[in-house]
Amino acid sequence: MDTPKLWRGRTLDDRSADRRAQIVDAGADLLGTSGSAAVTMREVIRRTNLSPRYFYESFDNRDALIIAIYDRSEGELLARLAAAPATADLTATIRAALLICATYFEEDPRRARILLREPMTDDTLRRHSTHRLPLFLRTLVPALGEDAAALIPDSEETLAVIGTALSGALIALYVDWADGRLTLPREHLVDTATTIVLALTERGTHRTSYPCIRGG
Question: Under CATH, to which class is 67-214 assigned?
Fold first, then answer.
């Protein structure tokens, strides 16, 4: 097997990965501060001091870049959630997960714009995030413990409906809080979000059927 050629101790793949990371970092700052319209190939290469050919080395187009930015932020949040220990109390476990989300957004408000606000206005991110929501829930909920996994319905149609309801309510809550329109302590925000999750999954009434979805 041929030994990779080195330049200043770096392989071609290493340097390509570094350039890709620079581009994603620059794009994330633009997306998180000024919105998707600000993310252009020209502005990204200006900020990174790279040539257009290096942009297209990593991304086919601007849409591919903003999807990569979204996926990186989503992956970071999922990793934090998956690393959180489950407790014997489902309500406490859900609350802990929602506190992790609030903390993640509070640490860097750009993250809330990338994951929550921009998918509401950018067509590419809206389609991408809609398709990923059921996967996100199926990945996250089992990590919270066996009781939490029971909240995931067997029907994909039901999961889609619940996911849409949950995301709509929680996104509105977290975005208004992150933007400062909803002025309340983080703990109060998390308590409210927990109540919403339990209500929409019907945990409080211990019902497992969804007659409104069946049309009954």
Answer: mainly alpha
Cα separation of the two ends of the chain: 65
- Tell me how far apart the alpha carbons of residues 74 and 111 are, in angstroms, rounded to a whole number: 9
SS3 call for 70: helix
Contact 190, 95 (CB under 8 A): yes
Using CA atoms, how far residue 112 sits from 19, 26, 109, 185, in Å, is 25, 17, 5, 17
| pLDDT, tens digit, 9 for 90 and up, residues 94-133 | 899 899 999 999 999 999 999 999 999 999 999 998 777 6
Tens digit of each residue's pLDDT (9 = 90 or more) over 35-45? 999 999 999 99
Counts for the chain of helices (H) and strands (E), in that order:
11, 2
CA quadruple 160, 192, 174, 107: dihedral positive or negative? Answer: negative
Residue spans per domain, the chain: 1-59, 67-214
Contact (CB, 8 A) for 177 and 189: yes
